[in-house]
Structures are given as C-alpha cells and as structure tokens.
Amino acid sequence: MCGRYAASADEAELVEEFDIDEVAGELPAASWNIAPTDPVAAIVQRVSKDDGESRRKLVPLRWGLVPSWSKDPKGGARMINARAETVAEKPSFRKAFAARRCLLPADGYYEWYATEAPPGGKPGKQPYFIHRDDGGRLVMAGIYEFWRDDSRPSGDPDAWLSTCSIITTSATDALGHLHDRMPMVIAREAWDDWLDPGLTDPAAAQELLRVTDAELLAAYPVAKAVGNIRNNSPELVEPVEAP
C-alpha cells in the first residue's frame, strides 16, 4: 500500500456510524491527501482507569507507529504499514496487535501505477484512487501505540505521542496490477471483537482480518496533483481520463 489516503467524514458522521461513547482530543480536519506523520481519526476501545468501564472513543493518532521502547520518534514515518503476515511476531508491532487495535476510516487510498515511456521520453507514474464501489466507507484495520518522551517532565501532556499503522496484505487480483499490497479491512460484524481490549490472543485477532471483496472495490485514475502533499481538496479524488 502506498503512503496516501483520503478521509473526509466529519465528527458527527463518525460518532453515529461507529457508536462512539467519547470524542477524546481535537480531531484532524477532512483531508484528501493524508501523508505519513499526519494526524488521522481513529476508533479505539479503552478501559477507564476510573470505573473499569470499556468505552469506544474517537481519537486523533499520528500515522506512523512509534514503538513504546523507541529512543526517539524519528522512525515512525517508516512504519505506516504493518504486514498482516508478520504483525503478530515483529517486535515493533506485536504488543500493539495483541492489545491495541483500532479502526481507521477512509474514503479510499491512492496507488501509483507505472506507465509506459512515450517515444524518446521517460516512464511516468499515474495515481489511482481505490475505494468501495458501493459508496461505503473503507474501514481499515490498524494498531496503535503510546510513546513517552522522557525528556519532558511528568504530567506534561505533550510528553505522550499516540501513533498508528495500517495493516496490509497481498492485493487481490482486481488490484494487483496497481500494487502488490492493500489494506486489510475489518467487516462491520467484526468491529466489536477487533476493538475489544480483552481480546489479547494474537491468533484470535488474526482471524478477524479480512480483505474487502474484490468486486466491491473500484479504482480510477486521478490528477497527478495528489503527488504533492501541499495539495489538498476534494478535486484530488475526482476521476480523470486514463493516460
């Protein structure tokens, strides 16, 4: 999976769709060009230390996971994706996969497809937008982690960094010509189990991962402007003529 996606749903839409109990923190604005280290909206389930109750929360996370044991957060930009085949085993991801899973709602994501070189020219890359053809939201499987900056004093709210990764798998035949990886998707009927903080068996969590049915996915070319992270508007997901 490439490192860009779009997520334009507002807070009210997400609260209703995901049956949110609490909005914790300032959510990022709608974006049609989310890039690594950008803030993203995520759904998590946390047990309150005050009353022991489990609450579903809508929270901001930074895209690019920083393991709790990291010396600094610099490597987060390289860990925007976690491979489904190894997420339960890799030291960077296994603790989060066992206990801190999240849902990352998206309109869709972008992939760049290599095009043939014109006579006398160089090959280029054409961006495509991949989304659910039925108009539904693409609910990607994610994991999240907390990292503390020990250089900051105790009690400083900025001492904590909350980050996430998207779990990916081999692309279906319908999308394999664009890229060999795609995000895992959590089906609506599995949301509760995926978010359950009491489900700590990696094997059980692995069984909840699935790929959106290939026939539900569509891909079309979009403007090359999406390649510049400074560009961010709904026009980025509008289809253009294929090259």
From TrEMBL:
GO terms for molecular function: lyase activity; peptidase activity; single-stranded DNA binding. This is Abasic site processing protein. It comes from Enemella evansiae. InterPro entries: SRAP, SRAP-like. Its EC number is 3.4.-.-. Signal peptide: none annotated. The lineage of its organism: Bacteria, Bacillati, Actinomycetota, Actinomycetes, Propionibacteriales. Pfam families: SRAP. It is an enzyme of class 3 (hydrolase). GO terms for biological process: protein-DNA covalent cross-linking repair; proteolysis. Keywords: Covalent protein-DNA linkage, DNA damage, DNA-binding, Hydrolase, Lyase, Protease. It comes from the Bacteria.
